[in-house]
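Quick sanity check, histidine kinase:
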Amino acid sequence: MVRLGFIIGFIALIGVLLSGLAAYRVHDQELALDGIALARAIDVHASLVQDRLTERELLARVASGLFRAPSVVKANMLQPLRSAIYAFKTDFVVASWIARLKPGDLPVAQAELKSAGFTSPTIRDFDDKPLDIKTINKPIDVLMDVEPRNSDTLGAPGRAYDRHSVIGPMLVQAAAAGKPLASDPIPLLRQNGPIGIVLASAIVPEGSTEPAGFVTFSYELAPLMLTNDDRSLFAVVLKDPDDVSDEYVANEQGVVTLRPLKQGDPLPSVVRTVTFGGRDWSLGYYAKNNAAQRAQQTAMIVAAIGLALTGIVCGLFGYVAYNNLRLSREIQVRIGFERRLTAVIDELNHRVKNILAVIQSIVTRTLRHGSDMDVSRELLIGRIHAMSNVVTLLSESQWQGVKLRGLFESRAIPHADRIVVNGPDISVSARAAQSLSLLFFELASHSDEGLSLVGKHPHIVANWEVTGEEPDEIFHFRWEEFNTSSATRREDSDFGLILLDRVAPEAMGGTAKRYFTDVSYVYELTAPMVTVVDMTERDRTGEISAPLR
């Protein structure tokens, strides 16, 4: 059983190690695959964003190339470009013409704005505060035309952007750069409008170094960042070009807000840089799924499956091995039972032969030639009854011995009511029990049945004791019949004399004597305790009768 447990434990250990190794490998593979998938998706997204920005920058270049600077101040300069800029199917919010006007051109510009139908045809500051054009002594950049024209854009023309904190410096830089230039993110159309970027391209007339104005395109930030893909593996943000601790984030509705980063906030998994409007922009990518947690969960599932399979294998192996072990034990028990049965039969045959030999001797000695048939029949029945009684007692004790007091029962010994028994309650062996049972019957059957000299029945006392110390203990037995004499006591038969003087003592390896006193008849038997108890016979009987294992 210990060996079986060791084997099952070894199999379980191998299964646990393999399950752990498989879970570890799956964990690493999941992390690697998620990392590869995320990196590839980010690279594709960054490439798409760059392509999108390049297309819009190309539109600004084409529009500035097609635009012809007017020789006079006009308010409807985008009319020739309308078909061209819409042919690109771009997603600009507002396209505008910002003219660089000299102080003397401002009254004419107001007249043009009024004739074009704009709702606020006056030259004013970018926040719609009025300007005193008479006090202006240098060229200013004024919005003269917009596309598309709607309720949100018709009120914008007439605004001057020289003092605007974002657009003003951007126009100066665009004039110096000679190529489209992008502004910082700002609200479009109105103060609380969507956040976007303005891309401006300077229009420089031939033979001049100063721009006549700027063609601008305004774009919302969310479409430029491609943030509307709910199934993507990441969330994209735009780092604030003025403060790296802030970032522009688009929500599920595509509304972009500025989010300040706090200490302890997670950093983007990957940062990519794109170019737009002559500037570098940093895109931050946050993984939507926790790759480490997902890998751990997958590894736990793999480990659980491995442990379950290990448990099933160990259970099946244990079940089969246990059944084989049980079958082997049953076979061994069966073999042992057959051996035990053979030993029991041999022992039974031996004991039956002994009993039959004793009975044969009893019958032969009792029915000897010339004996009185009535007396012989009575003695024969009593002796066989005594043998039957001791065999019954031995069977009840599984031949482990008989209590000495049990041999004095009235069903086996005549006149048992007259016998006073004294002595320790010891168990005698089967062989000693058979001899003592016949001995007691012979002694009791020959006691006087008539009246004694004093008119009383004989009084019988049976005493025994054990003296000495193990293993030299001695068994002493004394039978004494009071109120009797050689004249009144029935004479012992030949078989009885042989039993009293030779058979019983020799069976127990001892000696015996009998005699009359002045008032009694005495029989004494002395034998070693080891033969009276006979532990060898008891142990052999115990082994035969013990339950099989």
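Posting the structure with no commentary besides this: The two ends are 15 Å apart (CA to CA).
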